[in-house]
Amino acid sequence: MAPSRGPAQTPRTLHKTLANHKGPVHVARYAKGTAKYVLSGGQDRTVRLWNPDLGTEIKSYAAHGYEVLSLTVAHDNSRFASSGGDRQVFLWDVMTGQTIRRISGHMGKIFAVEFNEDASVLASGSYDSTVRLWDLKSQNRAPIQTLEEARDAVQAIHVGGTYILTGSVDGHVRTYDLRMGELRTDFFGHPVTAVVPSQDNQTYLATTLDAHIRLMDMSTGKMLNDFKGHASTSYRIRSCFGHGEATVVCGDENGSVWAWDLVDAAPLQPNPPPKVHERVITWIEHHPVDAGELITASADGTVKVWRTPSSG
Questions:
Q1: Domain count, the chain
Q2: Domain region containing 243
Q3: What mean pLDDT comes out for the span 184-199?
Q4: What is the CATH number of the domain that holds 190?
Q5: In Gene Ontology terms, what is a biological process of this protein (predicted)?
Q6: DSSP annotation of 265
Q7: Most buried pick, 132, 213, 230, 234, via CB within 10 A?
């Protein structure tokens, strides 16, 4: 899985700080493919579109009445969806800045929203303990399916080609196999704040509030590796794979960005890493194709763009 030349350097040189949000930023997502755009959402109820290269804000999307907790970008970058305290999912047109649709049905705040591969279906996970699947091509306003197995808030979702992965405060990651109609459950015993699969869909990273990130075999539920050292006990934070899936990276509650070697789970230098945000790092995401860039979002109100010096 990991390239034999060893892990790529984690981008740690600050390129730009995106600082227009008023209050904590909960999520920051890259546009798909080679497009160099970032969307961020925060407590100030706005979604903002940035050019991370120049560090400039391109557009602000304001319709939410409550904080924005989750964002997902369509495969062609023409639309995105957002969710949060409103109990509705907002579907947006990127260019016009208008909402195309508002999807109601959840009974509590919506922590996670995620498109499928071609953005024909949207999944949303809520404080009400359900995951709802919405057919965006249909005029029918009812969900096509409701997943009700979780016993507490659903904080994380990934929609794969044939499966859905969910993480809940009840301490479980659930894998719904859509082809076989089967459910597999992995129990962690602590609230799950993020689930991120590898590109081959064989493994996934589970971030939990016992300050562990575990690499799991998706089909058997066997733990393959355990990454620790970072501070994570009370906030929803996210870990992800570094470029080429040779590393795991995660921001923590002290405002530091940790990186580990995927294979031996050893923390990479600097260890411990320096504090780069004033408050908890709520989200981290590596650029989808560029080896030398990642973004962090923080409760300090900023999104930071990090690069390795070689990538300009």
A1: 1
A2: 13-307
A3: 98
A4: 2.130.10.10
A5: mRNA splicing, via spliceosome
A6: -
A7: 213
CA angle in degrees (0–180, nearest 5) for 200-205-210: 170
Closest CA to 299 of 273, 311, 281, 274: 281
**Is the Cβ–Cβ distance between 309 and 12 less than 8 Å?**
no
Pick from 296, 188, 212, 216: which is nearest to 251 by CA?
Answer: 296
Residue 37 pLDDT more than 70? Answer: yes
| DSSP notation for 163-209 | EEEEEETTSEEEEEETTTTEEEEEE-SS-EEEEEE-TTSSEEEEEET
C-alpha 107/C-alpha 166 separation (Å) is 18
**Range 210-213, long-range pairs (CB < 8 A, 24+ positions):** 213/239, 213/248, 213/250, 213/260
pTM for this predicted structure: 0.96
In this prediction, residue 7 has a pLDDT band, given cuts at 50, 70 and 90, of: low
| Phi, psi angles (nearest 5°) of residue 294 | -145, 165
For the residues 110-132, what does the mean pLDDT come to?
A: 98
Whole-number average pLDDT of the chain: 95
Report the pLDDT value the prediction gives residue 311, as an integer from 0 to 100.
Answer: 46
Confidence of residue 5 (pLDDT cuts 50, 70, 90): low
Return all residues near 264 (Cβ < 8 A) that are at least 6 apart: none
